[in-house]
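Notes from the 1:1 (GR / supervisor)

We went over the backlog. Supervisor wanted to see one worked example end to end before approving the batch request, so GR pasted a single chain during the call. The sequence is below; no edits were made to it. Supervisor asked that the structure be written out right there so they could see what the output format looks like.
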Amino acid sequence: MPGLGALAAVVALLGFLSIGMVEAGETQIVFAERGLEELGITAAGRRTRHLTFEHTARRDVTGTPDLMAVETVTVVGGVIFVEQARPRSAEYACPGVDIDPAGTSGQRLTASFPDQRVTGTIYDWELEPLVRFVRSGSDALFTYMGVHGEYHKAFAGNLAGFNLFLLDTFRSLRSPERAHLAVNTQVPGYTAGPGSDRIDEQAAGELTRWMRRSHLMFTDLDVDFVFGPEQGELVVDGDPYWIALDSRRRGPGRITGRFDDAAATLAANPVVFGSGFRLAKYAALFRYLKTDCPLQWRAFRGSVAQHRRELDLYTIPMRRMPYAVR
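Structure output shown during the call:
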């Protein structure tokens, strides 16, 4: 009996399936020819030694994170999520969260509430590294403070990390509204599916004009994430946003601007920012489980580990990860 790889190759040759669109398992991302270069991105090549970092924001006695502390503003110019979600009502506290391997990528996460089981929208290639990120206890997902970008280790070498680079450097990319199309592999929730071909140059231009500040963060600071079931779906209300800050002084930073128009941000590139919004929402939900529902958190982590081979995961060799943008 032929192996799975042989069957996939035969089907692909018949025109039914792209090699990069295997139903489940790890697939290495293939970029379009000169796809990164046309965006102005330089790949890491041999410069992989300092591509990862970790940072956790200081908390005060009440547990409130201080993103303007010197130790944060001098390290993070990028994506940092610090908040924890809460249930819409007491009856929705500590749901059982699980992976349904029979579902499709983007619809495999399930949450069990009293008398109902609902599905959450997060793609496998986002979910698996996000669970590892939340487990680590870190806050910062990505930073670009010096001459190159740095990834939290959970996002180094995968599609979710690649997308974080695009999100953070959006203002510096050539044709940022098309940035995700540098990926040639057919990926659910990225190059295949709703919004993957939606291009809005005007919306991208409006966002990049606002982003012409020296120091930006894409964050969820003070966002009140609230989750619960709604018509068969797991809904997490609350959206991340952009802040601009003055960090040139020797003391703490100071917020000088805020862009919190979620619709305008998503319109600039629904794929790139759609993933960023999902990461923020589910990071907040997973932090809630980790902090307030340890039994459910352990069970969920176990489910992810158990079904990992059945998830659609997309990897990128570290030497091909984005390093800098010109």
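Supervisor's comment: The longest strand covers residues 106-113.
Batch request approved.
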